[in-house]
Amino acid sequence: MTYSQRDKQYNWHPYTQHKTAADFPAIVKGKGALLWDENGKEYIDAIASWWVNPFGHSNTFIADAIYQQLTTLEHVLFGGFTHDKAVLLAEKLMQLLPSNQKKLFYSDNGSTAVEVAIKAALQFNYNQGIKKTKIIAFEDAFHGDTFGAMASSGISFFTEAFKGSLLEVARIPVPTAGNEAKSKAALLELVKTNEYAAFLFEPLVLGAAGMVMYPPEELDELIAICNNHNVLTIADEVMTGFGKTGKTFAVDYLQNQPDMMCLSKALTGGTIPMAITTFTQSIFDGFFDDDTNKALFHGHTFTANPTGCAAALASISLLETSEMQQNIKEINESHKAFEAKIKSHPKVKTTRVLGVIFALEIKTDSEESYYGTMRNKLYNFFIQHGIILRPVGNIVYILPPYVISKEELQKVYETIVDAIEMI
Ligand SMILES: *Cc1c(COP(=O)(O)O)cnc(C)c1O
């Protein structure tokens, strides 16, 4: 039996209805933007394996840093100890983050990075004797699958079964074209109640919603509203961080900086699971007290894992090379050229581009559900043609590794055109 067939005996996959799912390809090798399955079939990874892998698969520069670290100090507990790589990574990130970010808290994945930010926002208020127990988030937001992160996510089928067990979250419309005033008015109404500790958002691009984009000027105004009403702001940069939007962070497009940021996914170049929540000095100071009970009582066993920190340091040094910055620019230009060609296609409803992210909405007669028929047909078509793309309903998006070649990217575009014509 193949690995693909043997897989089903024990493995339970994410977001999968196993009764109706086909056998999954078993990937055994990766290099650059390419993956190969056990039968030798080649795939272009046009979504950087869920947005984690900007520098390509099996990157030897990051792998060498990991090997060095594994054979020097693989892990040490971060409670009561520190280590060189956590210090170096913190110092490095401080050069890249918005200037108001002064403290880092390490965890393991995007959801926990968000969880830490939410808990910090709630306890920041609690420590001062202020009762603010609710959160504000966007409609259609995605912040992860642990309880706090899930509660903040607005895509209903992810959370439907858990209603009643969740943190209270109020939703405002995303300020896309035509919805700017509604979004601001909804936020203003909520912040005036003095019940909300924080506004949590994906800056400029809502990834899981289908790469829904909105302008920085609008986010600046939303942050200003929060600032004026003592509501903390949390930028979830788990997807957008480390160059995806054309700048290091999406908040680099803003005038107003958030109070907290959540980082993960590309942080380690898609190698070791790791995440970081970052804070302003004033939030940190809200926990800084002679009273032990005012400390942030949160931690994970693998917090600030040295191997993860070494991978992150290597990844950031790759991101900073002029070659990688040039790749990001070229992918953006290439996306724009493709957009100009495809947007007048009779089956295309809308297109959008930011940084290395391209998205296109296919015209449909009815509302397409997240994992609906059209989505599955498109997904299977792409897989058959050796392209890994995971459409969201009728939205097809590309978020390639920065090292994808021109030819590979052209093949992705051509296959998308074929798919639109097939559908
Ligand atoms: C993927 C994602 C998360 C969750 O990260 P995990 O590592 O899957 O827990 C949170 N926020 C955003 C914006 C994401 O894209």
Automatic annotation (TrEMBL):
InterPro entries assigned: Aminotrans_3 (IPR005814), BioA (IPR005815), PyrdxlP-dep_Trfase (IPR015424), PyrdxlP-dep_Trfase_major (IPR015421), PyrdxlP-dep_Trfase_small (IPR015422)
Site (Participates in the substrate recognition with KAPA and in a stacking interaction with the adenine ring of SAM) location in chain: Y15
Enzyme class of the recorded protein, top EC level: transferase
SUPFAM superfamilies cross-referenced by the UniProt entry: PLP-dependent transferases
Entry's EC annotation: 2.6.1.62
Reactions catalysed, as given in the entry: (8S)-8-amino-7-oxononanoate + S-adenosyl-L-methionine = S-adenosyl-4-methylsulfanyl-2-oxobutanoate + (7R,8S)-7,8-diammoniononanoate
Keyword Cytoplasm in record: yes
Cofactor: pyridoxal 5'-phosphate
Localization, UniProt: Cytoplasm
A Gene Ontology biological process term: biotin biosynthetic process
Record's keyword annotation contains Cell membrane: no
Residue(s) carrying N6-(pyridoxal phosphate)lysine: K265
Gene Ontology cellular-component annotations: cytoplasm
Pfam families in the record: Aminotran_3
Residues that coordinate or bind substrate: W50, K265, G299, R390
A single GO molecular function term of this UniProt record: 2 iron, 2 sulfur cluster binding
UniProt keyword terms in alphabetical order: Aminotransferase, Biotin biosynthesis, Cytoplasm, Pyridoxal phosphate, S-adenosyl-L-methionine, Transferase
Pathway as given in its UniProt record: Cofactor biosynthesis; biotin biosynthesis; 7,8-diaminononanoate from 8-amino-7-oxononanoate (SAM route): step 1/1
Domain of life: Bacteria
Quaternary structure note: Homodimer.
PANTHER family: ADENOSYLMETHIONINE-8-AMINO-7-OXONONANOATE AMINOTRANSFERASE
Family membership: Belongs to the class-III pyridoxal-phosphate-dependent aminotransferase family. BioA subfamily.
Name the record gives this protein: Adenosylmethionine-8-amino-7-oxononanoate aminotransferase
